Structures are given as structure tokens and as C-alpha cells.
Amino acid sequence: MENFFVLEDRLPAGAGFATFGREHICWLLIAAALGAALCMVFRRAGRRGQARLRVAVGCMILLCELLKDANLLAQGVFDIYYLPLHLCGIAVFFSFYHSLRPGEVIGNFLYSTCMPGAFCALLFPDWTAYPAFSYHSIVAFLVHTLLTVYPLMLLCGGAFRPNRRRLPACFLLLLSLAVPIYVFDRIFQANYMFLLQPSPGSPLEWFASFLGNPGYLLGYLPMLAVIWAALYFPFRHRERDSSMDV
Predict the structure, then answer these.
(1) Which of 158, 171, 149, 182 is nearest to 227 (CA)?
(2) Rg, Å, the chain Cα set
(3) Angle between helices 47-74 and 135-156 (to 10 degrees)
(4) Which of 112, 142, 159, 229 is the most exposed place for a label (fewest CB within 10 A)?
(5) 193: closest CA among 168, 211, 210, 176?
(6) Which residues contact 15 (CB under 8 A, 6 or more apart)?
(7) Which positions ≥6 away from 190 have C-beta within 8 Å?
(8) What is the SS3 assignment for 167?
(9) Rounded to two decimals, what is the model's pTM?
């Protein structure tokens, strides 16, 4: 517990956890149980209950980001390298906005792009230098779990239906975020959205092994194509132009 609030650069060597080690697997099981519970509760809730739960989860997602920033501010280290400019950081605010004002484009963006990103972060966390049950790890696992579950919860409850005709808009939205963030990364030598260096242990490292840097960025395209095909193919016969129901 002595390292509970300690930040990465102040931790002793070996304080972290291994990807797919026992502690990581434990967190994945917790995430799966929490996700299943939220989906079941949302599915069984009435229209008003779903609206309240949607807002509650959106607020919880935002609260996780604020709790993380509070620890950084308390230790006097919050700077441009801790801004919420990763895809999951951006998804925090999109999810919160969507929970208050549901819309089809943002809903599909959360489902098609943010949810897979958050899920990949759970599988390949970039916070493994922290103890698995430290403050930072708890907040990180919780927020990425909620970002993954939020669109699934809406889908299970019938409040959202994937619409592949919104994918071009989702791609343009992603591109409109990535371009200025790439410029920001180049200027400040940050690595938001992993646009300068692939995330360690992620599939992007495999692309970098034969495409080099920045060639590995092309790996995002086949990854998106495979993910979008898997997420939208099952709903190809049920697409409609309706907006969110709740």
C-alpha cells in the first residue's frame, strides 16, 4: 500500500504487473463480470431506468478521468504529457456527452472506434509499470472497462443499433482528431494515440517490425477494416436510419 498513489517514474523497479499475468487476468475477469452485470441491468430496465443508468455510467466515466487528474495535480506533475488526448481519453468526453445527448454518429463512433480501442487497452495496458491494484491501475482498468461496456450496454438494451452507413462519418471524425494530435505529438514529442511510437506489446509493434516507423501507422487501416467488419456484419440486415431511442 505504500506505493498506492505513487506515479510511474517514482516507483521502485519491479513494482508493476505482467501483461496476461495473474493480476492482469484477475482484472480482466473483474471487467467481464462488471460488464455483464451492467448489460443485464440495462436490458431489464424500463425506458426511464435506461436513461438514468446511461447518464450514471457516462458520469462515472468522466469521474474516473477527474480522479486520475486529481492525483496528478496533487503530486504537482500534471503537464502536457498527461492530457486526455489518447483515443480513450477523448472517448471519456464523447461518452459523457452522448450519455446526456444521444446521437447516431457519436453512438457509432463510440461503438466502432472507441470501444475496440478501450478493449485493446484492457488487453494490452500501457500502465503495467504500476502495481496492479494501485490507485492509477484501479482507475485505468475501471475507465477502460466502462468505455468498453457503455456502447455494449446500449446495444444489449436496444437503445442503439449499429449502422454501417455512419462509418464514413466515424472515419472522418477519427481523422479530424488524429491529424492535429499527430502535429501536437511532433511538436512536443508526445505519443498520444500512439502516432509516433507503437504501444508496447500491442499489434502495432508487429506492424512496426516490417513496416518501420511511421509505416506502422498504415496498420491502423487493416485493423479498422477487420474490427468494423466483425462489429457490423451481424447487423447488416437490421440497419436503419433511426437515432438513439433513449
Answers:
(1) 171
(2) 18
(3) 160
(4) 229
(5) 176
(6) 3, 129, 130, 131
(7) 80, 81, 85, 184, 196
(8) helix
(9) 0.91
Residues 142 and 21: beta-carbon distance below 8 Å:
no
Cell of 74: 496533487
Q: Which residues of 219-244 are buried (b: 16+ CB within 10 A; e: fewer)?
A: bbeebbeebbeebbeeeeeeeeeeeb
Q: Could you tell me how far CA 66 lies from the centroid of its own chain?
A: 15
Q: Which one-letter amino acid corresponds to residue 97? A: Y
Dist. CA 171–CA 156, nearest whole Å: 24
CA distance 169 to 74: 39
- The letter for the amino acid at 243 is S
- Structure confidence by residue, pLDDT tens digits, 31-67: 999 999 999 999 999 899 999 999 999 999 999 999 9
Tell me the pLDDT tens digit for each residue of 93-122. Answer: 999 999 999 999 999 999 999 999 999 999
CA 124 to chain centroid: 12
